[in-house]
Amino acid sequence: MKAVAIDGPAGAGKSTISRITAKKLGFIYVDTGALYRTVGYAMDSKNVSVQDTQGVKNALKDINIELKFIDNEQRVFLNGEDVSDKIRTPKVSMLASDFSALSPVREFLFDLQRDIAKKQNVIMDGRDIGTLVLPNADIKIFLTATPEDRAKRRYNEFVEKGVPVEFDKLLEEIKQRDYNDSHRAVAPLKQADDALLVDTTGNTLEESINLLFDIISKRLGL
Questions:
Q1: pLDDT, tens digit, for every residue of 118-138?
Q2: Considering Cα of 16, then 2, then 178, then 187, what sign does the dihedral take?
Q3: Which of 18, 34, 42, 163 has the most Cβ atoms closer than 10 angstroms to its Cβ?
Q4: What pLDDT was estimated at residue 209?
C-alpha cells in the first residue's frame, strides 16, 4: 500500500486538492480534519467544554465515527448520522482546532486513521500526518499559502454556498487558528523534516491539483 501524507494550515486547500488528486490517482482520500470537526461538533452538541477534560473523555465513550466512501467520496457518520455537511461551518472549524489539542481526542482518532492507511492506497491530509500519524509515508508534502490567500478562498467558498461571512473576520480566524495549531502542546502543526514544501499562493485550483499530481506521480513512479 502507498501512503501520501499532506499537512498544512487551515484553508490551504488541502481537502479539495487532495480529494481530486486522489481520484485522479485511484487512491482513497482521507480528510482527517473532518474527523476532528466531527468530534468538535459532537462535543458542542453535548455542551461539553474543551476545558472539561474528564467530560470530554466521558463523551468520547458515546461517540462512534465512521468514514464511508460513497461514489468515491468521503462521507463522515457520527453515531449513524451523515454529518458531512453539518461540520463545514466556521464555528465547527474553530471547535476542531480547540478539541484537537487534547490528547484524549487525538488518541481516540489515531488508530482509525492508521487502520485506513494499512488497507488501501491513500492520500491523507491533516496537521500531523507526516510527523505522527504516518511517519513512514511514501511521500510527505506540506501544503501552504499566505493567510490572505487562504482567507480569500474560504470567503469565496462560503459566498458560493450562500453563507453570510465577513472577509476580515475569516482572515482573523485563520491567523488565530494558525497560531493555535502551531503552538499547542500536543501534536503541533509543523513541516516534517523530510516533507516537500508546496506553496500554492496565487495558484488556481487546477494549477495546484496539477502540481500535486505531478509531484506524487513522479515520486511514486506512476
A1: 888 999 998 889 998 999 999
A2: positive
A3: 18
A4: 95
Contact 170, 178 (CB under 8 A): no
**Which residue reads 513512514 in cell numbers?**
136
Q: What nine digits make up the cell of 8?
A: 498544512
Reading the block at residue 38, the C-alpha cell is 466531527
Question: How is residue 109 written as a grid cell?
Answer: 482518532
Nearest CA among 32, 44, 28, 168 for reference residue 108? 32
Taking the C-alpha atoms of residue 1 and residue 119, their distance in angstroms, rounded to an integer, is 7
Pairing of strands 3-7, 139-144: parallel
Q: Are 30 and 19 in contact (CB under 8 A)?
A: no
Map grid coordinates 505522527 to a residue: 132
SS3 labels along the chain: CCEEEEECCCCCCHHHHHHHHHHHHCCEEEEHHHHHHHHHHHHHHCCCCCCCHHHHHHHHCCCCEEEEEECCEEEEEECCEECCCCCCCHHHHHHHHHHCCCHHHHHHHHHHHHHHHHHCCEEEEECCHHHHHCCCCCEEEEEECCHHHHHHHHHHHHHHCCCCCCHHHHHHHHHHHHHHHHHCCCCCCCCCCCCEEEECCCCCHHHHHHHHHHHHHHHHCC
